[in-house]
Amino acid sequence: MTTVAAYAAPAAKAPLERTTIERRPVGEFDVLIDIKFAGICHSDIHQAQEGWGEAIFPMVPGHEIAGVVAEVGAGVTKFQVGDRVGVGCMVGSCRECENCKAGREQYCVQGNVPTYNGIGKDGEPTYGGYSQKIVVDENYVVRIPDGLSLDVAAPLLCAGITLYSPLKRWQAGPGKKVAIVGLGGLGHMGVKIAHALGAEVTVLSQSLRKKDDGLKLGADHYYATSDPKTFEELRGTFDLIVSTVSAPLDFNAYLSLLKTEGALVNVGAPEEPVSLNLFSVIGGGKTLAGSMIGGIAETQEMLDFCAEHGIGAEIELIAASEINTAYERVIGSDVRYRFVIDTATI
Question: How far apart (Å, rounded) are the C-alpha atoms in residues 192 and 28?
């Protein structure tokens, strides 16, 4: 076992504090990673505050991990010491079900093993990236291409793949009109990736406060959803809408913005149930869908795509002592666009 410094929430809604945790010994197929940077995802906050249901404490959040391989097990073939690597939202799955075999480990029939707030195959709680080291099965580690700095690559391990997967699945590209709802940690990656895929990109945000940013990031158009005229003007416009917000939306209004047989895909996860008039879907043959991260192969594909197109996250680098303040600022939408912890400060 290796003892490492970490930041943990001791209980639900409690401030995070510095502590130490134990990492398992490096097994035959394990990789020990010196974590260099860890992104702060809104889902870290939902879980640390038990917004999505009962959680495991103490909790070390963090599933946007970028670092360098420090040690490998004897059976490891994919990585060697010194490699630049990342770990996203899962560190295990059954590897035998039809979803795992198809490269969709995120939808493992038995349930994937989350990077934190989960139980590993050894029966012990999993602890995430707000720490200095982590031990992960090589099959859940991805390579970060040389063209990406580790600090701006870290958020790609959740925010990047969470947007890349549905944009690819619903074929965002030339000739397609795509709207991204919300310009935050997820949304800003959606704009960059959809633009790089060749789609015509519109941001739908509560206000025009971030309009200049949105256009710089690659959006062609930017509308305020607080203006009722937006929904009149854009009715029947989009092939695909990806909602990144974790607040309940008026789904009937957003579905009205789709073309016939268009899709509204949710990657933001509100804590409360939402209401829907099914005629909003039936009239027009529309799809209301969800999407969750991506499989390991697709995550690697996304990283390679981002390196090829020079795409990293827009980040604010912080010291570990600023985590609690960062949480407050994320809740207040006061971040452009992803906080990343310099783990040397833990």
Answer: 39
Average pLDDT over the chain reads 97
For residue 333, pLDDT beyond 90: no
How many whole angstroms separate alpha carbon 165 and alpha carbon 162? 6
Cβ contact 258:280 at 8 Å: no
Is 211 strand, coil or helix? helix
Full-model pTM: 0.96
The three-class DSSP label of residue 20 is: strand
- Residue 8's contacts (CB-CB under 8 Å, 6 or more residues apart) are 16, 17, 19, 21, 58, 59, 60, 127, 130
The dihedral region occupied by 316, where left means phi > 0, alpha psi between -120 and 50, and beta the remainder, is: beta
Quick one: average pLDDT of 138-143? 98
Question: For the chain, where are the E strands, in sequence order?
Answer: 2-8, 17-23, 30-39, 65-72, 84-87, 90-92, 113-114, 133-137, 142-143, 177-181, 200-205, 221-224, 238-243, 258-266, 287-290, 315-318, 338-342
Q: How far apart are CA 28 and CA 132, in angstroms?
A: 21
Spatial distance between the Cα atoms of 16 and 30, rounded to a whole number of angstroms:
28
Residue pointed to by tokens 């209301």: 288
185 and 42 in contact (C-beta within 8 Å)?
A: yes
* Residue 144 amino acid letter: I
pLDDT higher for 52 or 177? 177
Determine the straight-line distance between the first and last CA of the chain, rounded to whole angstroms. 19
How large is the C-alpha radius of gyration of the chain? 20
C-alpha 298, offset from chain centre: 13
Which residue in 30, 106, 14 sits closest to 63, CA to CA?
106
| Strand (E) or helix (H) holding 159 | helix 159-169
- Say if strands 315-318 and 338-342 run parallel, antiparallel, or are unpaired: parallel
Instruction: Look at residue 101 in the predicted model and tell me its pLDDT.
Output: 97
Predicted local distance difference test score (pLDDT) of residue 95: 96
Q: What span, in angstroms and rounded, lies between the C-alpha atoms of 304 and 113?
A: 24
Query: Is residue 286 within 8 Å of residue 255, measured between CB atoms?
Result: yes
- pLDDT reported for residue 73: 98
